[in-house]
Amino acid sequence: MQNLNELNEKIASIKQEILDNADALKSSRSVYECRKTFLDSKKGKIGQLMKEMRNIPNDQKADFGKAVNAAKEWAGQFFDELDEKLKAEEQKLRYESEKIDISMPAMRTRYGNLHPITTVRNQLTDIFASMGFSVYEGTEIEKDYYNFTALNTPQDHPARDMQDTFYLSPEFLLRTQTSAGQIHVMESQKPPIKIISPGKVFRSDDDATHSPMFSQMEGLVVDEGITLCDLKGMLDLFVKQIFGENTTTRLRPSYFPFTEPSVEVDVSCFQCGGQGCRLCKGTGWIEVLGAGVVNKKVLENCGIDSERYSGFAFGLGLERIAMLKYGINNIKLLFESDLRVLDQIDD
Ligand code: PHE
Fold first, then answer.
1. E strands within the chain?
2. Which residue, by CA, sits nearest to atom 2 of ligand 1?
3. Does ligand 1 come within 6 angstroms of the Cβ of 202?
4. What does the pLDDT look like over 179-208, one tens digit per residue?
5. CA distance 178 to 204
6. What's the pTM?
């Protein structure tokens, strides 16, 4: 390039080129790229014009510089405006795509609720706590001695067959009953004793109403002058609170090695009031727990004077109570964590 005229022609053609290109620019990103091809100080088509300065006669140099700068300014402004316009369009599109209809109904928040077994355990614990019982939590792995022998069930005792036991070794097993806790408590506390002991127990048993793992709650009272009447009185109070004001109890003779006498406790059917229905299988009564007067041999095994003290014990199945209360007919439903089931059992 030799003079201003040539420069002006060049600038005019660059401007035209920019205008021609502009139509194809649809995003601020492409504006940025295009801007570089013209305005980059080293490689840009306008940026490079300054290099021509050395070929220009001295008296035209000042005007040459001004013209190049004016072209730069024009192009800069042109791209700025285009960029602004495209950015505004892009933002508008984004706002539209992210639009939220605040009149739409809100998504339902799912709240968790306690598992029915936990609810039943809490309810029973509250009832017994209000009668002055404290809670003892035993261990799931027990010694054969605590689960059986000390409970007057030595090796070869036929009552061992009542419960199919998971043995871990000849000495250790998964407790088959929370009754094992009775021994721990009586070994470590002096009467008066008044405890409940909730927890998991294990038996090799599996059908619609039995599961290899289930939950029990044990109760034990030891003091001077405790009789079967105290057990009956306490149970009457208990069943009214859990099954309703009109519920009564009935004791039937039974057998457990660690209680003498032993009883099976029935409650009057809370569904039909004793008339006979499907729940109570037409009998008007529902079996809910095993209990009895603590066998003297068990007291003595724990170093408690059986002449001075006596006691009663009971054991109930929490799944059984939950199944009765909530009308569940298969114990597995309590262990499957199916929300469609659990959602219905919330109180
Ligand atoms: N442990 C007995 C059972 O699991 C229940 C029970 C507990 C019976 C306490 C009497 C006294 O079948």
1. 134-135, 141-143, 172-174, 193-202, 213-223, 249-256, 259-268, 285-294, 310-317
2. 315
3. no
4. 999 999 999 999 999 999 999 999 998 888
5. 16
6. 0.70
